[in-house]
Amino acid sequence: MHDSAVAVAVAVANRLKMTRSLRLQRAGQMDRVFFSILHIFIWSGISALFTVEVESPLYEGQFQHDVKMVCRYPPGNGDPTVIWRRIRPSPEMEVFRLQNGREDDRFQDKWFRGRVQLVKEDLRVGRAALLLSDLNINDTGVYQCLIETGEADVAQTSLTVKAAYTAIKRSVRSVGDGLFQLSCESHGYPNATVAWKEEKSDKRSITLRSDTTAVAAADHRFNVTSSVVVKRAADASYTCTFLQHALPNPSATFTGADLPSRSSVLSASVVASLIAIVAIISAAAFLYWKLKGAKVKKLQSPRILTADKVCDPSFACLPTQEFSLYDEVFKDKMEMLRVALKKHYTNSFRDKTAEHGFFPEEVFSHLFHTRDGQPVDPCQVLPASGETVVLEGNPGGKTFIAQHLALSWAQDRNWHLFTAHFQLVVLVACEQAKGNLLQQVISDLTVDTGLAAEDLLILLMETADSLLILDGYTEGCEETDEWLHSFMRNSPKCGLLITACQGQCQNLERRSEKVMFLHKNLHR
C-alpha cells in the first residue's frame, strides 16, 4: 500500500513538471513569435526610410557627347556600394561598380570600359552621379542604379541617344533639256524625313516629286540622301529640310546661281574645243571641232517620260493632267491608304454609330459652344488647311464625334460637317500612342499597305484638304508633345482637330486658332 502511494505521488509530480514545461515552452514560442513580428515591423519602418530615386526618369544624350545620370539616396556612415547596370535591351550589362570605397571593374562589360566614371565628391551628399562619355547610339536603353549602405534599394531610368544631322552636302547635276537634279545629303539618328519647297512668288511643296533613301552605317546613324529634278528658273530657289523629332531641322537652299545656265554649259564646251584646236591643228580644224561639239550637245539632250507621253518637262504643269513618275507612285500610295483607312473606319465604328445613329442636321447647331457658352456653327469645328482646332468635352462624347467624322468620310456621307470634301482623314486614338503618333495609325490598319509612318507623314503634309484628328490628346509626354509641335510647324496644308478633356491641353489652347467645347450632356 505504501509503495502504491509513493508511485502515485511520483506520477503526479512528473505530470505537473511536464505540464509546467509545456507551458514554459509555449510561452517561449509566443515570445519568439512576438519578437519576430516586432522585428519585422521595426525593420520595415527603418527600410522605408531608405529609398533610392532617380533625378530624372528619362535622359537624352547627343551622339559622341557626354551625359550624367543621377540617383539620390539618404547618405549615411561608411562607404556605400554603388552598382549601375543597363538592364534593357538584352543582354544585361554591368556599367560601373563601387565597393568598399574602390572601383571594381571585374564585372564591368567591355562596351563601357574606359567611358564611365562616378563623381565621388557627390557621394557625401547622397548623389550617385554616373558620367557616361563618348555616347553611342547603342547606349540607348533602361539603366538601373543600386545603392547599399546597410540597407539597399534600386531605381531605374531611361537613356535615349540621338545624333543631330550634319551640315547638308549639296550637289547639282544637269540631266538635259534645261533640267537639273538637286541632291541633299546628311547623316544622323533617328531616320529623318526630307521636305522640299520651291520658292517663287509663293512657296509650294515639291516633296512628292523627291526621291529619298536612307542607309544605316556601322555606327547606326542613317546616311540620308534626297534628290529632286527641277527646271531652271532665274527667280526660283529650292530648299531641302531634314525634319527630325526634338532636334534642329537643318536646311539648304539652291538658288538660280547654283544652276548652270545654258550659255555657261556651251562656254565650257567651246573653251575645251579651243584648247584642243590650238594644240593640234589649224583654224579649219577649229570650225570642225566647234560643229562637232554642237552635235554632241544635241545628242546629250534626253527628255523625261511622263505617265502617258514624252514631253518637255515643266513642273509648273504638275497640278494639271501631267505628272512625273514620282507623282504617279505617290498617287498609288494615296489611293491605297484611302482604301485601307475607309475599310478600317467602317469595320471599327459602323456598329457603334448604328447603335446611336447618325446625328440629324438640326442637332448639330446645339452640340458646340464657345468658352462663354455662345453656340458655334458646326462648320467651324473642322479646321481649314494649316489650321488647328481644339475641341474639349466628356471622354465618351468627344470620342464619338471623332469616330463619327471618320466614319462619315469613309462612307462618303455628305452630311452637315462636309467631311466629304477631305481627300484624307486620319484618326489617331491618343490614349495608346506615344512619340510619333502616326505609327499608331499604321499599326492599327488590318490591311498591309506597305507604307511606313514617314510615308503617312509626307502624304498629310503635302496633300491639300487633309485632316488629322487626335482623339483624347493629353499634354505632358515630352516626346509626343515635341512631335506634335514639329508637325504643326511643318504641315501648312493639313487641318488638325484635337479632342481632349477640359484642362488637359492648356498649352495647345493658347497656340490654337480656335477652342470649342462639346455640350456637357453628350456622353454617348
UniProtKB/TrEMBL annotation:
Keywords: Cell membrane, Disulfide bond, Glycoprotein, Immunoglobulin domain, Membrane, Receptor, Signal, Transmembrane, Transmembrane helix. It is found in: Cell membrane. Pfam families: C2-set_3 (PF22705), NACHT (PF05729), V-set (PF07686). The chain crosses the membrane at residues 33-52, 265-289. One of its GO terms (biological process) is T cell costimulation. PROSITE patterns: IG_LIKE. Residues 47-162, 176-255 form the Ig-like domain. The keyword Membrane applies. It comes from the Eukaryota. It is a single-pass type I membrane protein. One of its GO terms (cellular component) is external side of plasma membrane. Its main location: membrane. This is Ig-like domain-containing protein. It comes from Denticeps clupeoides (denticle herring).
